[in-house]
């Protein structure tokens, strides 16, 4: 699928590292087919040393001749980065953006082009091959374009295609969600320590409990409430813990977290006021 294709990653941070690592592990892409750019020389040196890919500090040169471009810089600087690419950009090149909140319409407007673009929202578990990515597709993509974008993110986890209007909600849930879960794991471990467990034991039990519970949801297909009910024995320990969580407003807090992050994603995508 990627035979003879050159892939340029603009911005060589965490997300690019996860995707480059995943792609190379599939064996579908050789290191020489990948170029990554960054403004930090130490980052370029690290990527070249770790993956034997080509690296550059020149975004415009990196995209020249590329068949697929993956945009992985902060959304706040993406307009400026795109303007720097325009002179060397093939107008038909497939562009995949992972920038939070940044709409495809804005991407095409800034680049003065009409399409062949994908807006993606991956998450950091991609680093360990357990990512969850949602893709929004521009209407003019070929089946081969879609297959390539899907293969890129399937190399680091699961892929779901959604309408673009849902991407801010996706960002608030699965894009930002790993941070909520890390906080929950940390807090569970703190509870374990408070109840007398050594910290390493508490941390390992907390993480494995979250992994196991998530795996049950995915593998049984049962509603989480049904699985919750099966843990809670009448008059037992779990219902006492669940009552404490309801008193603390855990459900409302998590719903508000997703909503706040989705709203922030929408804000990030809004055009800056014209001066
Ligand atoms: N970290 C996360 O959990 C997720 C991040 N994203 C999106 O991925 C994108 C990248 O995020 P991360 O990799 O986490 O950030 P990061 O900060 O690790 O990587 C961004 C990289 O871009 C480089 N950079 C800055 N200006 C540049 C320029 N002009 N040209 C080339 N490179 C430049 C920075 O030096 C940095 O290494 C963002 O748009 C973010 O919204 C999407 C999903 C999840
Ligand atoms: O916090 C952020 O803006 C990025 C996008 C989703 C996860 N991290």
From TrEMBL:
It is an enzyme of class 1 (oxidoreductase). It comes from the Bacteria. Keywords: Amino-acid biosynthesis, Cytoplasm, NADP, Oxidoreductase, Proline biosynthesis. Pathway: Amino-acid biosynthesis; L-proline biosynthesis; L-proline from L-glutamate 5-semialdehyde: step 1/1. InterPro entries: 6-PGluconate_DH-like_C_sf, NAD(P)-bd_dom_sf, P5C_Rdtase_cat_N, P5CR-like_CS, P5CR_dimer, Pyrroline-COOH_reductase. Its EC number is 1.5.1.2. One of its GO terms (cellular component) is cytoplasm. It is found in: Cytoplasm. Residues 164-268 form the Pyrroline-5-carboxylate reductase dimerisation domain. HAMAP family: P5C_reductase. Catalyzes the reduction of 1-pyrroline-5-carboxylate (PCA) to L-proline. Belongs to the pyrroline-5-carboxylate reductase family. This is Pyrroline-5-carboxylate reductase. It comes from Nitrospira tepida.
């Amino acid at each position: 699928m990627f035979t003879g294709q050159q892939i340029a990653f603009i911005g060589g941070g965490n997300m690019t590292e996860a995707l480059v690592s995943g792609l190379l592990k599939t064996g579908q892409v050789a290191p020489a087919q990948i170029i990554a750019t960054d403004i930090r020389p130490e980052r370029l040196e690290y990527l070249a040393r770790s993956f034997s890919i080509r690296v550059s500090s020149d975004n415009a040169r990196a995209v020249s001749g590329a068949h697929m471009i993956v945009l992985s810089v902060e959304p706040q600087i993406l307009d400026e980065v795109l303007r720097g690419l325009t002179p060397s950009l093939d107008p038909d090149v497939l562009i995949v953006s992972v920038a939070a909140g940044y709409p495809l319409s804005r991407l095409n407007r800034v680049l003065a082009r009409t399409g062949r673009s994908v807006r993606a929202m991956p998450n950091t578990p991609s680093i360990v091959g357990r990512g969850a990515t949602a893709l929004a597709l521009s209407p003019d993509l070929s089946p081969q374009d879609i297959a390539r974008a899907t293969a890129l993110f399937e190399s680091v986890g699961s892929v779901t295609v959604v309408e673009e209007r849902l991407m801010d909600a996706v960002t608030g849930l699965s894009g930002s969600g790993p941070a909520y879960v890390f906080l929950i794991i940390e807090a569970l471990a703190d509870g374990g320590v408070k109840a007398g467990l050594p910290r390493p034991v508490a941390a390992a039990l907390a993480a494995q409990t979250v992994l196991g519970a998530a795996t049950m949801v995915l593998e049984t297909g049962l509603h989480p409430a049904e699985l919750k009910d099966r843990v809670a024995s009448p008059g037992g320990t779990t219902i006492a813990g669940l009552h404490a969580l309801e008193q603390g407003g855990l459900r409302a807090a998590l719903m508000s977290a997703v909503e706040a992050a989705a709203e922030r994603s929408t804000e990030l995508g809004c055009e800056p006021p014209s001066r």
